[in-house]
Amino acid sequence: MKGFAILEYQFTSKDMVRRCQGILGLLFAASMAFGQSVSQDSIIARFDQYAKKNLQEKVYVHTDKNMYLPGEIMWFKIYEMGAANNSQMDFSKVVYTEIISNDQKVVLQAKTGIMNGSGSGSLQLPIDLTSGTYRIRSYTNWMKNFGPDYFFEKNVYVVNTLIKPERPVAADKVEYAIQFFPEGGDLVEGLSSKIGFKAVDNEGLGIDFTGSIVDENNEVIASIKPARFGIGSFVMKPMANKNYRAVIQVPGGGSVTSALPAVKKNGYVMSVKEIAGDKLNIEIGTNTGTSDEVLLIAHTRQETKITEKISLRNGKADFQVDKSKLGDGISHFTLFSGSGQPIAERLYFKRPAAKLTLNVKPDQQQYGKRKKVSLDLDALNEKGEQAEANASISIYASNGSAPAGIDIVSYLWLKSDLKGYVEEPGYYFRSADAQSTEALDNLMLTQGWRRVIWDDVVSNKVKKPAFLPEIDGHTIDGKLIDTRTNAPASNIVTYLSVPGKNFQLYTARSDANGEVTFHTRNVAGPSELVAQTNFKIDSTYRIEFKSPFSTEYSNYKAPSIRLTEDYRAPLLTQSVANQVQNVYLGNKLRTFYPAAIDSGSFYLKPADSYLLDNFVRFNTMEEVLREYVTKVPVTRQKNEFNLWVSFKRHYDDQYVDVEPLLVYDGVPIFDRGTKIVRYDPKKVKSVEVLDKKYFVGPASFNSIINFKSYKNNLPDFALDNRATVVDYDGVQLRREFYSPVYETEAQASDRLPDFRNLLYWSPDVMMGASGKKSLSFYTSDQKGKYTIVVEGISSLGIPGSNVFNIEVK
């Protein structure tokens, strides 16, 4: 067993200089124009149509823990929801999950089948994976239409204790950056504005500082200091012909100077403030001198909540809206001019009124080694009533574990509607005091962004999606190429086969760009794909498969974890345990559930089936067919054979011979029968005959003859060299989580070591109408504190997360 080489400096030195990511605070300025005037009523109608045509999905992933060693298994549960109300939806049937490094290199990929809005899977980390911060991201094929900022992402940490890292080259200095975000979007001459700011170090983490806003004469306009995570706000009235900058004193000494956004001569400002009585006060100001009526639209996740036309008097308007009209979570307030141009925008967060409380009650707080732990779980709504919920639970050794990551509550209500890195999103939900409320509003000022593309809404654009939703199963995409010209080939029927015991055959017709899409249903686990055209009529084409995984990435890097000396002993214990588990329980950790798929052939039930071992074996397939398979006449012309299917037509009782599709282990054979007639009949187990017309997608066949081998693997059968054959990983098979049982004295005294630090993992904790669930497991030989994390979502789309602890002595 190799020795332990804990990282000495990799996560603590500031060696990776990174610029603060550009955060989109406001996306529309008053000067933005669309080349046309649009009525305000038309904007409302067009927005509602836009929302209906642009269904949004969200994905959340619960991992068993946040810190791993190479060689460990990462277990995960996927929740798929509609973005409008967070309710689980039965839309996409596949979610793509990747582990990627901070330099955007893919480490692992998996396709997870989704049923009724959830699914689960696992990934075993490579043994040579280097220490560092990695990101797990998940998305559906449909979500790729809206860009990687919509994908679920969270940080996971890997520590390779067996490899001592090379000492990185230290940066000359730590770099800092500060950005400013005027409320509403612009600084306008003579109009007071609230301005949000965010200051971060080179890893994107907020810093504490003091500073001042000064003009070109170094006159102090305002003093600034962040409230939390380097984020804060101040109020100022910019004046004409003035330039403003910030001078801040950063940690460790020194200062940073940064200019504020340019002051516009004319424009609009908007302010949103909470006031007593559960209301919001909206203030609008302009110095344009116009008397246009402006339109305010507020929407929560693309569902319109407020539309109000406002008349400005003396360049001002001040009115109140009831917060109860807004949905929970993030709402967008957008102001439009009389000509239909968006002129100001502001995000506001309304704390969710509905709650899901997930409770875990262990039968004890302390346990001995190899003892039974019984847990009672219940789900309660905000009224304390039992709630139906779909949940997942993990119990892992908490000594030396990574910092708490994002949970389902902070992700669905907050992070999923914000762009970029949000530091400690759970902080904003731990309490609702004045400090966290101020910090939350500052976050809305500095990190707001939109899912709605207003220029598309106003111009009434309808974009054809580049990626189709996988509403029935996994789709496999490819491109058909003409080998003579290397140009895309259009309007050609292509065939995709998945050989095996439960073989499948799919067809697709190439479009004008040569694109083909096979809508599969049962491609699970490692498979082999065979793609062909009908070489009897289309002999000059090849198919190139496309990866279903996105090649686009969000443009920020995650900050690295700060490991301290306190991590040394726990990580050493975890490293030893991981090696012992892989040696003694490797086979159990590699046990997968068989795929639950239809065992029938793609053509369902054949008219006739012949098991050749029931007959005297002949030496040639020609003899087998002539003697036993009476519905298949064999004709010969010189050295070439033709196979037919003979059957009586139902409408005139006349016997006819039709040309069949020949299939061997699910792979079409595009000749008239010569190859299969010359094949060794002793390698063929059975022959099935379908004596009627059959349709598969755009292709149709007068009849089918299917030959099956004993192992369904086309033994020694030479496929046409024009066929494309590739290894392919289908939807991931579910790995079985192994948890030993110590019910008897003999089991408890078993000398096989049990060094599990993940005591229990279940992605399928279903709490029905009673809102209750009981489960049990056994402790291992590892003493220490264990963390219980339970996450889930109610049938009404309300997320819940909770953390508990037990101890093994």
Mean pLDDT: 88
Q: If strands are numbered along the chain, what order do they take across the biggest sheet? A: 2-8-7-4-5
Kindly state the number of beta strands: 51
Q: How would the global form be characterised?
A: globular
**How many helical stretches?**
10
Structural class: mainly beta
Radius of gyration, in Å, reads: 32 Å
* Strand content bin: 35-45%
Helix content: under 10%
N-C termini distance:
26 Å
- Unreliably modeled segments: 1-35
Main sheet properties: 5 strands, mixed
Question: What oligomerization state is this entry in?
Answer: single chain
Summarize the structure.
The protein has 809 residues and is mainly beta.
Structural notes for this entry:
This protein has a 5-stranded mixed sheet with strand order 2-8-7-4-5, with no helix packed on it. It has a 5-stranded mixed sheet with strand order 26-51-50-28-48. The chain is globular, with a radius of gyration of 32 Å. It has 809 residues and is mainly β. It is 10% helix and 40% strand. The longest helix is centred in the C-terminal third of the chain and has 17 residues, at 568-584.
Question: Layout of helices and strands, plus pairs?
Answer:
Elements (H helix, E strand, L loop, with lengths): L39 H14 L3 E7 L3 E2 L4 E10 L11 E8 L4 E8 L4 E7 L7 E8 L12 E7 L17 E7 L4 E2 L4 E9 L8 E6 L4 E5 L6 E6 L7 E6 L5 E5 L3 E2 L3 E8 L3 E8 L6 E8 L2 E9 L4 E7 L6 E8 L5 E9 L5 E7 L3 E2 L4 E10 L7 E9 L10 H6 L13 H4 L3 H14 L6 H5 L16 E8 L4 E2 L4 E6 L5 E6 L5 E5 L6 E8 L7 E5 L22 H17 L1 H4 L18 E4 L9 H7 L6 E4 L2 E4 L1 E4 L6 E4 L2 E4 L2 E3 L4 H4 L6 E7 L3 E3 L2 E3 L2 E6 L14 E6 L15 H4 L9 E10 L4 E7 L5 E11 L4 E10 L1
Parallel strand pairs: 2-8, 10-17, 26-51, 41-46
Antiparallel strand pairs: 1-3, 3-6, 4-5, 4-7, 7-8, 9-11, 11-14, 12-13, 12-15, 15-16, 18-19, 19-22, 20-21, 20-23, 23-24, 25-27, 27-49, 28-48, 28-50, 29-30, 29-33, 29-35, 31-32, 31-34, 34-47, 36-43, 37-38, 39-40, 41-42, 43-46, 44-45, 50-51
